[in-house]
């Protein structure tokens, strides 16, 4: 019988930003725009231990998955999938119907989570005009998207 991990999401507050930036830097993820308006980021914990970070930008009913990173000690243990599930559920609860992302290293992981590879120029205009698309992520990054369910959190 599979048991659900009890991962808690806490919106990142002032005292946590440096730890988040350090985690992004160690994972070679961009951090230049994380404090701009319209972005929501979370610290994820399990049993009082930080297991990862991540969040999204909302652009109407489209969202851009941002800066998801799992602490090295928790990688390859299902934590990333659970963190993603929680981010998707929060986004769906906030009215986001479709998630988009760019990745240079994790397309296989996201394909396992039902994200589809698409041509970068097929992204909706509000998504293609984000900092991620316009320059933070290289042109070689894989563009992926997924429809979210309003009942993503079970």
Q: How do the strands of the widest beta sheet line up side by side?
A: 1-2-3-4-5-7-6
Q: List the secondary-structure elements in sequence, H or E.
A: EHEEEHEHEHHE
Q: Name the structural class.
A: alpha+beta
Helical proportion, percent range:
25-40%
CATH architecture: 3-Layer(aba) Sandwich
Q: How many extended strands?
A: 7
| Number of helical elements | 5
CATH superfamily: Gcn5-related N-acetyltransferase (GNAT)
Largest sheet: 7 strands, mixed
Give the strand content. 25-35%
Task: Furnish the topology, listing elements before pairings.
Blueprint: E1 8-11, H1 17-26, E2 39-46, E3 49-59, E4 62-70, H2 79-93, E5 98-103, H3 107-112, E6 116-118, H4 125-128, H5 131-136, E7 142-147
Organism: Pseudomonas poae
GO molecular function, one term: acyltransferase activity, transferring groups other than amino-acyl groups
Domain N-acetyltransferase: 1-149
Outline the structure in words.
The protein is of the alpha+beta class and 154 residues long. It has a single domain, classed as Aminopeptidase (3-Layer(aba) Sandwich), CATH 3.40.630. It contains five helices and seven strands; from the N terminus they run E-H-E-E-E-H-E-H-E-H-H-E. It has helices at residues 17-26, 79-93, 107-112, 125-128, 131-136, and strands at 8-11, 39-46, 49-59, 62-70, 98-103, 116-118, 142-147. It has a seven-stranded mixed β-sheet with strand order 1-2-3-4-5-7-6, with helices on both faces. A hairpin with a 2-residue loop joins strand 3 and strand 4 (62-70). The longest helix has 15 residues, at 79-93. The mean pLDDT is 89.
